[in-house]
Amino acid sequence: MTKKSLRPATLLVHQGTDRDPFTGASTVPIYQASTYHHPGGRSTRYDYARGGNPSREQVEETVALLEGGIRGFAFASGMSATGSALSLLKSGDHLIVPEDLYGGTYRYLTAILPNQGIEVSFVDQTDLSAVEAAIRKESRAIFLETPSNPRFRIADIRAISRLARERGLLTFLDNTFMTPLLQRPLELGIDVVIHSATKFLGGHSDLLAGVVTVREEDLARRLKLFQNAFGAVLSPFDSFLLTRGIKTLKVRLEAAQAGAGILAERLREHPAVSRVYYPGLADFPARDLHFRQASGPGAVLSFELRGKSRLTPFLEAIELPIIAPSLGGVETILTHCWSMSHAAVPVPVKQKLGIGENLLRLSVGIEDPEDLWDDLDRALG
Ligand SMILES: *Cc1c(COP(=O)(O)O)cnc(C)c1O
Q1: Catalytic residue among 153, 184, 199, 361
Q2: Distance separating alpha carbons of residues 296 and 188, to the nearest angstrom
Q3: How do residues 3-51 score in pLDDT, each as one tens digit?
């Protein structure tokens, strides 16, 4: 039985290395060591923990297997994963990114990349001709995030990666919202897949982590170099937590997604809600495209309150969800995008993108959806 032939639910539990190779312990221990003995001056394969250690390798192997990549790389956060992956670009390069994306990525693209001589164009990636029109001679890569955050705009992964390949461009995709269980971008033509593992992969709102996976040896070799050279690696302890979280990803995600479907339908009918964004709704505008490239709608939705004056009373009345900038936990998380996840995005840009002050994002957890609904319905008044 090779690990590659295993189905996702089995892979999640048995992962790459599912027990300690040295003792048979049921979990790979937290190898809390910064360096490794070289008997007789010879390396045993582990040299110095930044370069590699068994705790981190287990996570890296698992994520690569789940995404269908050849190698995975684990970082201290989703942002350090994104930054390390974007080190594939160099001064003079031009990068095409979506208009509507995670606020921290927006900050990285606008505050860091220009200082490194990399120019960034924000493009409506739901329009393939706009993506094509943005390509110029210096263009080196296209970065995607679909569904986008927080407006759930859907980019055509196959079409954009085909275009990129024809024009000799690399493609990156932030797959945090979908996880490899719902969307497998490497199989759709993407070169580099990035996750904030802080979210669904970790799943318990108790760690920060990021992972990157690729399908080509040359990219893997370069990312390995960046990971070691830049050094924003995932610690052994957090590798252990992430490994443990990943084991239950399928059951967590299925339960949360079922809850999100129920809440999206009911929120849409609620008089205090003017709009719901969720790919699982029958009238979601890009529903067909989303389901051609993903097998589920996910467990995150956004909704707009009818009128700004409802915001404070709602946030004061709601009890079960934590009100915070994150998603993908076992507990429901309510985010005020304007002031939290997208605080780094300037007000005029938020307005242009339709991220209003009355837009809320709900990452549905695995509580009983009826309790969540009772709470939402009461707080909406
Ligand atoms: C949270 C998030 C990130 C950043 O990850 P951190 O682990 O917080 O650094 C990147 N992309 C998306 C879509 C996210 O939700």
Answers
A1: 199
A2: 16
A3: 778 898 999 999 878 888 789 999 999 999 999 999 999 999 999 999 9
Q: Which is the closest atom of ligand 1 to the Cα of 177? A: 13
> Does ligand 1 come within 6 angstroms of the Cβ of 104?
yes
341, two tokens: 């996840």
334: closest CA among 301, 373, 370? 301
Atom of ligand 1 lying closest to residue 209 CA: 7
Question: In 3-state terms, what secondary structure has residue 248?
Answer: coil
Its pTM stands at 0.96
168, HSE (Cβ side, Cα atoms, 13 Å): 7
Domains delineated in the chain:
3-247 (3.40.640.10), 249-380 (3.90.1150.10)
Count how many residues are written for the chain.
Answer: 381
pLDDT in tens, 203-218: 999 999 999 999 999 9
Span from the CA of 245 to the centroid of ligand 1 (angstroms): 17
CB of 105 within 6 A of ligand 1: the answer is: yes
Q: Tell me if 176 CB under 6 Å of ligand 1.
A: yes
Question: b vs e for 73-109, b when ≥16 Cβ sit within 10 Å of the residue's Cβ?
Answer: bbbbbbbbbbbbbbebbeeebbbbbbbbbbbbbbebb
